[in-house]
Design brief:
The chain is 46% helix and 7% strand. The chain has 118 residues and is mainly alpha-helical. Strands 1-2 form a two-stranded antiparallel sheet. The model has no long low-confidence stretch (mean pLDDT 84). It binds zinc ion. The site of zinc ion has 8 residues, from helix 5.
Length: 118
Amino acid sequence: MTIEDLRKLTHKHSHSKIKKVISKCMYRDRRNYKVIKEFFNYTCQCCKYKLRSTSGKYIIQIAHIIPHSKTRDNRLENLLVLCSRCHQEFDYSDKRNRILSRIRRNFPEVKYNEIETI
Ligand SMILES: [Zn+2]
């Protein structure tokens, strides 16, 4: 069941109940974060940087191609595994398209959401 399916059901249930189910569903979707981090071996898809802390934890971030705040899209094709520097550049600078092109070159077999022009 997708978030959209849940939203269509709102007329049948109370708003608070639906809200609870939707947030649960979104939380569940976050399991993809772990899946994709493992898939890319905790390495930045753009610059290939891999950082492990002294406690043994990998320092790597999840970026959303279409911002999470807009669509809550946690499907794998909307997610990127990036180091903090590439993530900041992707979200806040004009290097967005360059970063995505580099990622597509690095992993041509992976399907991604179309980039949103900002
Ligand atoms: Zn990077």
